[in-house]
Amino acid sequence: MKFSILVNEGPYTHQASDTAYQFAKAVLAKGHEIFRIFYYHDGVNNATRLTTPPQDDRNIVARWSKLAEEHKLDMVVCVAAAQRRGIVDEGEMKRNGKDATNLAPGFRISGLGQLIEAGIQSDRLVVFGD
Amino acid sequence: MLHIINKSPYDRCAVDSALATGAGVILLIEDGVYAAVKGGAEEKKIKGALGRFKFYALIADLEARGLGDRVIDGITPVDYAGFVDLVAENKTCQSWL
């Protein structure tokens, strides 16, 4: 079965990004496919490579990147939500005259159409948030 | 329909909202598992709805809160794989955020 996941909460907030991650792993372990993970609202903060959690804590961002690499996941960050919160890739840096990028590996910035498409193309869309 | 509830019943009224839909499946996760506690304020409500709803609670979140052995009879504990199965078995799912 084809799943998509919507993450609406930032890392280290309550529990949604942790639950979403554990759910994604369980989906893959069951042999299902993940069509896309979409990060919206404060969820875009899951995609900054500049976070430095304590060494004995889980690294939520790096964990997503690793999962994406291992399973060739499509992890999409909402562009409007990302601009508001300072999540920047090469293209956004140039377009908005910024001096740095911080998008973590495995993520890409795109529009809400990607969420709608995920809803249409997937058998199930599961929402995690605050 | 699968209702996914992640808020404590002492914080939000998501359990009431889900029960008001009439019938279905309710999965309690994160702070939502506080609704699954034996002797809690939700017990009567949940027991009264057992004929119309199937209730599940995420084991990891129960155990993280020390509630693993205090679950209301009739609520089935599930792991993340069980969570995935519930989503797959139900045609639609609603996260009560």
Please describe what this structure looks like.
The complex is a heterodimer of chains A (130) and B (97). Chain A is of the alpha/beta class. Chain A has a single domain (2-128), classed as Hypothetical Protein Ychn, Chain: A (3-Layer(aba) Sandwich). Chain A is 37% helix and 20% strand. In chain A, α1 (16-29) runs parallel beside α2 (60-71). The radius of gyration of chain A is 14 Å and the shape is globular. By secondary structure, chain B is an alpha/beta fold. Chain B has a single domain (2-96), classed as Hypothetical Protein Ychn, Chain: A, CATH 3.40.1260.10. Chain B contains four helices and five strands; from the N terminus they run βαβαβαβαβ. Chain B has helices at residues 14-19, 43-48, 59-64, 80-89, and strands at residues 2-5, 24-28, 53-58, 75-78, 93-96. A five-stranded parallel β-sheet of chain B has the order 4-3-2-1-5. In chain B, β3, α3 (59-64) and β4 (75-78) form a beta-alpha-beta unit. The interface between A and B is medium-sized, with 22 and 18 residues.
Reading side by side through the largest sheet of chain A, how are the strands ordered?
4-3-2-1-5
Number of strands of chain A: 5
Sketch the major β-sheet of chain B: 5 strands, parallel
Do you know the CATH topology of chain B?
Hypothetical Protein Ychn, Chain: A
Count the domains of chain B: 1
Number of helices of chain A: 5
Overall residue-averaged pLDDT value of chain B: 98
Q: Per CATH, what is the topology of chain A?
A: Hypothetical Protein Ychn, Chain: A
- Work out the strand percent of chain A: 15-25%
The helix count of chain B comes to 4
What would you call the shape of chain A? globular
Rg of chain A, Cα atoms, Å: 14 Å
Low-pLDDT runs of 5+ residues of chain B are none
- Indicate the multimeric state: heterodimer
